[in-house]
Specification:
The complex is a heterodimer of chains A (263) and B (580). Chain A is an alpha/beta fold. Chain A is 40% helix and 23% strand. By secondary structure, chain B is mainly alpha-helical. Chain B folds into 2 domains: 204 residues, no CATH class; 248 residues, no CATH class. Chain B has 20 helices and 2 strands. The chains are: A alpha/beta (263), B mainly alpha (580). Chains A and B meet through α2, α3 and α4 of A and α11, α12, α13, α16 and α20 of B.
């Protein structure tokens, strides 16, 4: 359902994403991991048609996102990393705006809006301006907007940032159910526990290169053979992205930390 | 230290590439050019007054002093009208305040730094418009160096006084009102002040409409400086006049109260900020705008009961009732959204309101002049008057459009991703923005042309004026939107007459001046037949034909430009939808 072929984005001297190739099938939840500035958001934006790639192509359900953007976007739901919305619209009006842009059937849109607003506990405040909403509430509105049209593919950039534990749990449940209906989910996250528990496969991007891809078990076997389930995704991630080198530095900065912990 | 950091941020713009360097270099050139223009204009005016009013002793001085006193009053009004916004933005809305208040620094110090920054931001504005007029008067009257020094001192003190008073009012208001409500209050107060000024000028103009020079002198002297000794504006003017022997005024008599009041108010503002500033800043993000939500929620509860199922059912009924009249698809959806956002935005009401007042005054004065003077209009006059009406409406429309529809793509701001991520093509986006940009002009034209239609003033038919006016406005809107599509600035935040935190100010000014220039150029074209007939190039009998030909040409030009502009603009809008 999602296919990236040699996707590359160059900003001047910086290659943000370098020849990234991957695919995500129906019913799959794909976790996209990487350190800050590694190219996660750029990749998601290119896959959604929000950013033109310097080279390569992205296809959603067989449609080239950059050749037929309108057709491709009709199949995509997107949740950005920061929930910037029209502050002078209410939550209901924003959802109505998205429903109209996507030419949804009016009756179906009304039912779906009601359902999503109720599910995300926004019904009571649906007629208040979004400027009065907290970051987490806006995030929920963005997720609701992305789910409104029941798209075939859902892209989420750090969806749980700013959400309270209850809402984060709800989002995880919604995504699981979404994938169970044969749709694809592509999400980036820094919370490795979420990726480990939820994702069928993960991809790790580092300095614009996709350095690993597969299920968490696959990666364990490939990266740290013979260690079994004792190795967490965090260990794998740090091994692959070079985070371990900082252990020495941390020891140097806080030499007594181990002693204090022992005490 | 905070001030030094603010200064460094300004200077560091030169590190932000060529654009930043250019902006930094052009800013003083712009200010100097503007003040030079004001000086030149004022010099011409005072020289003319001196020679024209030489026959009536004391008249030239009386008129000039009233002008200069009025100028001091203008400083106060300027600080109230735009300074209020600027001070609010700098003192309460600067991005760094949260950071500064989280540091071990007394809130009074943060306030004092922002207070001085706001003062130094206002000072050039006041000096550029105020000082050159005084300098021009001084130059005409061949005064000494002390005069010029006192002008600068007088304006600096007057500004400090008004700035401190406004800041004190802000401190008190912010303590008790949430930020959102205060902003709405700004708009209401500003509009009221604007209306008051227009009405006062109308009253003054009717009082001064006399043919008798002695009566005119008496009227002018009725508002002289001796009678208004208690006003800070009088202190400011007399402080300067004290340097000239022919005015029996002592500088110290006015410098002392002006300086004392200014410094005392500034001290009081800083002193009071200790308790008020932090409390006010904390309430900045508070909103009282929930009334819309409360009303709707109450209505929803009333119609739907308490259960969720009935809520859905009621929403369905409501939806099916209202949806029949609505239109789906990207074009209508974007246009509807923009109009809805604008109806909730004070900028539209402010710009539309001031433009409507200006057009209303023009209509009233023209019709009053015609009825009082009993003027018989010739065919050429009729043509010229009709062209002037179209020009006025188009220029006002272009000014409103340059703050609303003309920059509506940029005003999508950080929410632009919502359009990028949904199935919207460039064609729909461009057309929706164009339609939205023409809207203010049409809103202004209808009542304005209608008033003349029913006021019985001679002109060409209403439908023709509307057609030509809408054509010109569409060309102007097209230029605005093309400019916006090719050079978008998604950081732009339009407030009353300016942009928030100065972001996008250059773009707003460019769009405004460019669209005014286009509207003016096209409107002046309309006057060409009347001018040619007056000069005798064509006989008067051919005027109607010439007018008609020109009108057809303008409508054809609009159609041609729309089809070309749509093609070019849609492609660029499509590009924007696919990239940051």
């Amino acid at each position: 359902m999602i296919r990236a072929e040699g996707l590359t984005k160059v900003y001047g001297a910086l290659t943000a994403v370098n020849e990234l190739t991957l695919s995500v099938g129906p019913g799959e939840i794909f976790g996209f991991l990487g350190p800050n500035g590694s190219g996660k958001t750029t990749t998601i934006k290119m896959l959604c048609g929000l950013l033109s790639p310097t080279a390569g192509r992205a296809k959603i359900c067989g449609i080239d996102v950059h050749e037929k953007p309108v057709e491709a976007k009709a199949m995509i739901g997107y949740v950005p990393d920061t929930p910037n919305v029209y502050e002078k619209l209410t939550a209901r009006e924003l959802l109505q705006f998205v429903a109209d842009l996507r030419k949804m059937d009016p009756k179906e849109a009304a039912d779906r809006m009601e359902e999503l607003l109720y599910m995300f506990e926004l019904s009571d405040r649906q007629d208040e301006l979004l400027s009065t909403y907290s970051h987490g509430m806006r995030q929920k509105v963005c997720i609701a907007a992305a789910l409104l049209d029941e798209p075939r593919v859902l892209f989420l950039d750090e969806p749980t940032v700013g959400l309270d534990p209850k809402s984060a749990r709800l989002v995880k449940e919604v995504l699981r159910q979404f994938a169970q209906t044969g749709r694809a989910v592509f999400m980036s996250t820094h919370i490795l526990e979420i990726a480990e528990r939820m994702c069928d496969r993960v991809g790790i991007i580092h300095q614009g290169h996709l350095i690993a891809e597969g299920s968490v078990d696959d990666l364990r076997r490939r990266v740290l053979p013979g260690t079994g389930e004792a190795v967490s995704l965090e260990d794998l991630f740090l091994k692959l992205t070079g985070g371990e080198e900082y252990k020495e530095l941390i020891k140097h900065l806080a030499p007594d930390a181990d002693n204090l912990q022992a005490e | 230290m905070i001030l030094r950091t603010d200064l460094m941020s300004v200077l560091n713009r030169r590190k932000a590439g060529k654009k930043g360097k250019l902006q930094l270099a052009l800013l003083p050139v712009f200010w100097i050019g503007l003040s030079g223009g004001v000086y030149y204009g004022a010099h011409l005016l005072f020289s003319y007054l001196d020679s024209y009013l030489a026959a009536v002793p004391g008249m030239a001085d009386a008129v000039a002093l009233n002008l200069l006193n009025g100028l001091a009053l203008y400083v106060i009004v300027l600080v109230f009208l735009s300074g209020f916004q600027l001070i609010f933005r700098i003192v309460y809305e600067s991005d760094d305040i949260g950071f500064l208040l989280s540091q071990p620094v007394p809130s009074r110090a943060v306030f004092a730094a922002k207070f001085i920054t706001a003062y130094t931001s206002l000072l050039p504005m006041v000096l550029v418009f105020g000082a050159p007029v005084w300098f021009a008067w001084g130059s005409v009257n061949r005064v000494g160096l002390g005069f010029y020094v006192m002008v600068m001192l007088s304006y600096s003190l007057l500004l400090l006084l008004v700035h401190s008073a406004v800041t004190l009012m802000l401190l008190a208001a912010m303590r008790y009102l949430p930020g959102a409500r205060l902003k709405r209050l700004f708009v209401a107060v500003t509009a009221l002040l604007g209306m008051f000024m227009v009405l006062s000028s109308q009253v003054m103009s009717s009082r001064l409409s006399t043919g008798d020079p002695m009566e005119l002198l008496r009227q002018i002297e009725s508002v002289n400086l001796k009678k208004t000794w208690y006003l800070p504006t009088t202190w400011s003017v007399n402080l300067v006049l004290g340097t000239l022997e022919r005015f029996d005024v002592r500088t110290s008599h006015y410098a002392v109260p002006l300086a004392c009041c200014a410094l005392a108010l500034a001290w009081l503002a800083v002193k009071m900020s200790n308790g008020l500033y932090f409390a006010g800043w904390s309430g900045l993000e508070e909103s009282s705008s929930t009334s819309l939500g409360k009303r709707k929620a109450a209505r929803r509860r009333k119609t739907s009961g308490v259960s969720r199922v009935s809520g859905a059912a009621s929403a369905r009924i409501h939806f099916s009732r209202t949806y029949a009249s609505q239109m789906q698809g990207a074009f209508w959806t974007i246009l509807r959204k923009d109009v809805k956002l604008l109806l909730r935005d004070p900028v539209l009401w402010y710009s539309l309101g001031t433009s409507a007042i200006a057009l209303g005054c023009f209509a009233y004065n023209t019709m009053r002049g015609a009825s009082v003077g009993g003027i018989e209009y010739s065919l050429t006059d009729r043509s010229m008057l009709s062209s002037t009406l179209v020009m006025m409406a188009c220029i006002m429309g272009s000014i409103v459009g340059s703050q609303t529809g003309g920059v509506s793509l940029s005003r999508e701001g950080s929410s632009f991703w919502l359009l990028q991520a949904n199935p919207v093509d460039g064609w729909d986006l461009f057309r929706a923005k164009l339609a939205y940009a023409v809207l203010p002009s049409i809103l202004l034209m209808l009542p304005f042309f209608g008033a003349f239609e029913f006021g019985g003033l001679p002109h060409y038919p209403l439908w023709r004026k509307l057609l030509v006016g809408v054509s010109i406005s569409t060309i102007v809107a097209l230029c605005q939107i093309l400019l916006d599509v090719y050079f978008p600035d998604f950081t732009i935040r339009v407030e009353i007459g300016s942009s928030k935190s100065g972001r996008g100010t250059g773009k707003l000014l460019t769009v405004m001046f460019a669209s005014m220039a286009v509207a003016l150029a096209l409107s002046v074209l309309l006057m060409i037949p009347a001018i040619l007939v007056t000069k005798g190039t064509y006989p008067q009998s051919s005027l109607a034909r010439l007018d008609a030909a020109l009108h057809v040409a303008i409508v054809a030009l609009a159609i041609l430009m729309i089809s070309l502009g749509n093609r070019v603009g849609s492609k660029q809008a499509g590009r924007l939808l696919r990239s940051d």
